[in-house]
Amino acid sequence: MDLVREARILLEKNRRTIDGHTYTMPSPSTYPYQWLWDSCFHAIVLAQLEPEAAKAELLSLIAQQFPDGMIPHIIFWGKEVSLPFRIAWRGAPTSSITQPPMLAYAAWEIHRRTPDKVFLEKIYPGILSFYKYLIEKRDPQDHHLIGIINPDESGEDNSPRFDGPMHTHTDVSFTRHMLLRHQLVQKNRVCSFDAEICMSKNFWVKDVPFNAILVRNLQALGHIASFLGHKAGEHFALLNEGLIKTAMREYLLSEGVFWSASDHDYTQLRVATWAHFAPLFADLYTKEEADALMERHFNNAETFRAPFGIRTTSKQEPSYRPGGFWRGPIWFGPHWFIYKGLRAYGYKGEAAFILRANLALLERNGFREYFDPETGRAHGAHNFTWGTLTLDMIEE
Questions:
Q1: If you compute the radius of gyration of the chain from its CA atoms, what whole number of angstroms results?
Q2: pLDDT band at residue 395 under the 50/70/90 scheme
Q3: Tens digit of each residue's pLDDT (9 = 90 or more) over 253-310
Q4: Residue 115 belongs to a domain
Q5: Which residue(s) pair with 21 in the sheet?
Q6: The CATH number of the domain where 63 resides is what?
Q7: Which of 66, 146, 206, 325 could pair with 70 in a Cys bridge, judged by C-beta atoms 3.0 to 4.6 Å apart?
Q8: Taking residues 67-91, what's their average pLDDT?
């Protein structure tokens, strides 16, 4: 497979321009809109293929930013909204919840490859406003951990680490779980999606990957602010990066790994998922802790290491389903985060395993959504863009 050629063809095929705004659909048949963290993934890849398309991808997100700074996780761009996305949002041409905040990292990556101060000046206010929203509105207890108000905000929909807060069981069906998440949207609609009120009443999770991703993106925001000479923004980024790092270690670290937590008492959600590896992306483990993580989990065939990559849920969990949506299968998004973390810690052999797994899955299945970790069988959407992230891994 000529990955550069095939990735370019796929991203161009999935690209749309509406009312002057250009974006890339994750999959035309299954996800025919614009998604927040998907667009950030697209921009990271496009930064090396088509820098101008990468910039347009991110600027289209800012175009639909809410007055309070939140960026919605779906932008429908005037298209007819199909099920299961036709639910009770607050009436805008978007959803009313957000997604992992990868915007600053993607913007800085574009600039790193093709320096463009004008682009950074244009997008910087939107990024800063988004991160201020998360820090000021999604942390009502001022404990410096950002809460999500729906599993969809994690980007992982029905990951079993949310079964407890969703009051469901480990063998819940995909359809039933989706219904529960839609009911959660309805509850949040009643209180006008006020995060500070809704989180405490309905669903309030301090998710490990979400917070780790924010930490890494605050680092990127700091780089952008410093480059542009915005001292206040640089201070905001540096201060909150440190506060969230400290809080994650205080509230979420136990028995050598990080666990997401829920409610006011920070009850840890003891379900082993790939979230254990996400803090590598933000340099949250000590080297000794990371070494133990590699031994206990990454290189352990009875937990996460599978013939075709890293399981998103440990094989030892009752909820593990090799073909279940986010309940075990391999996804290229988590693989990318894990790979970046492994490289940062110097685990070259483990990183090479991730890259080889990606290449093997792409060669065998093409651009599909997720994969059985035991057999390599493809599932879900066709022409799904996350596989293009492998280009960003190859270059290293």
A1: 19
A2: low
A3: 999 999 999 988 899 999 999 999 999 999 999 999 999 999 999 999 999 999 999 9
A4: yes
A5: 18
A6: 1.50.10.10
A7: 66
A8: 87
pLDDT at 97 over 70: yes
**In a 10 Å sphere around its CB, with 0-12 CB exposed, 13-18 middle and 19+ buried, how is residue 192 labelled?**
exposed
Give the 3-state secondary structure of residue 379: strand
Looking at the domain assignment, is residue 124 inside a domain? yes
Query: What's the domain count of the chain?
Result: 1
The predicted structure's pLDDT at residue 396: 61
Owner of token pair 């980024």: 237
Token pair of 181 as six digits: 């998440």
Please give the structure tokens belonging to residue 311: 């399981």
Strands 74-75 and 34-35: antiparallel
Cα dist. 347→224, 338, 354, 396 in Å?
Answer: 28, 11, 11, 13
Report the C-alpha gap between 69 and 161 in whole angstroms.
28
Alpha carbons within 13 A on the beta-carbon side of 31: 24
| Strand arrangement, sheet containing 261-262 | 205-206, 261-262, 267-268
- Assigned domain for 346 exists: no
Q: Taking CA 183 as the corner, what is the angle to CA 178 and CA 189, rounded to the nearest 5 degrees?
A: 130
The string of DSSP codes covering 176-198 is HHHHHHHHHHHHHHHTTT-HHHH
**Burial (CB count <10 Å: 0-12, 13-18, 19+), residue 3:** middle
Which three-class secondary structure state does DSSP give residue 116? coil
Is residue 325 situated within a structural domain? no
pLDDT: is 181 or 195 the higher one?
Answer: 181
- If phi > 0 it is left, if psi is from -120 to 50 it is alpha, else beta; for residue 220 that is alpha
Q: Which domain holds residue 48?
A: 3-282
